[in-house]
Each structure stands twice: as structure tokens, then as C-alpha cells.
Design goal:
DNA binding, RNA_pol_sigma-70_dom, mainly alpha, 147 residues
Length: 147
């Protein structure tokens, strides 16, 4: 109402009432747009680096996975290379061809839509494949830890 009083010009053809209603309506619309704006979603939907990766009882966190240490020890490098080769071999045994393709494209940083376009599949099919990958790898890791 204050803005209507402040900005009203009596020399125009509109009445004060019509001008005030217009100002109030626009202010309400602006308030609704501001309240529903998606501007702060990244801040409000953050993922904690200390959160367990797979489930609440898991000991591994994102911080454990995101190490910044560079390995200089040749022995460590060889061990990790062998472990990586073993994981690749196991993944090719456990996962289907589609799941391997989807996982590779996803790890390359492509979105679900980009992957679905490349593989000529529905986005839901891509999501389902990634969910199966996650379940299969979790199951395999649990079995590895038990043995």
C-alpha cells in the first residue's frame, strides 16, 4: 500500500483504488515467485562428506573415497593397479553389457538424458540400470568383506 501511495500520480487517468489494487497484486505475485524460486536448492540439498556411502551402518564415507593423496610408492601403485584390474574383471562378470555401458558413461560425467540418447534407451531404463549396478556392487562388496 505504501508503494501505491508513494508512486500514484493523480494526473493519470487511473483511479487510486485501481492503481493500489494493481500494486498489491503485483507485490503478491513477486512474493510468491520469490518464495518458490529454485535459487537456493544447491545449498539446501547438499550432501555431507561425512555421511555413510551405502547405508546408515556403513563405515565408509564420501570423505574416505575422495582422497587427495598422491601415491609415490611404486609398490602401492602396483597393488592399486592390480586391485583395479581385479575390480574391472569382477564388474564384467557381475554386470550386464548395458549396465557396464551405462556405468562407464555415468562415470564419464554424462547425465541420464545424455546416456539415454547415446544408448537409444529411455531415461527410466538408464536409472534402473544404475540402480541394479549399485545393488550388485554393494552385494559383491558385502560378500568380499565376509570372506
Amino acid at each position: 500500500m505504501y508503494k501505491a501511495v508513494r508512486d500514484f500520480k493523480g494526473d493519470k487517468l487511473a483511479s487510486f483504488r485501481a492503481f493500489a489494487e494493481l500494486c498489491i497484486t503485483r507485490q503478491i505475485i513477486t512474493a510468491i515467485k520469490t518464495a518458490t524460486r529454485q535459487k537456493h536448492i544447491p545449498l539446501n540439498s547438499y550432501v555431507s562428506l561425512d555421511k555413510p556411502i551405502f547405508d546408515e551402518e556403513s563405515d565408509r564415507t564420501l570423505m574416505d573415497v575422495l582422497t587427495g593423496a598422491i601415491m609415490d610408492d611404486p609398490e602401492e601403485l602396483m597393488i592399486h593397479r592390480e586391485e583395479f584390474g581385479y575390480l574391472e574383471e569382477k564388474m564384467s562378470e557381475i554386470l550386464s553389457e548395458l549396465e557396464l555401458q551405462v556405468l562407464a558413461l555415468y562415470l564419464d560425467g554424462q547425465s541420464y538424458h545424455e546416456i539415454s540418447a547415446k544408448l537409444n534407451r529411455h531415461v527410466k531404463s538408464i536409472d534402473n540400470a544404475l540402480q541394479r549396478v549399485k545393488r550388485k556392487l554393494e552385494r559383491h562388496l558385502v560378500l568380499e568383506e565376509m570372506s
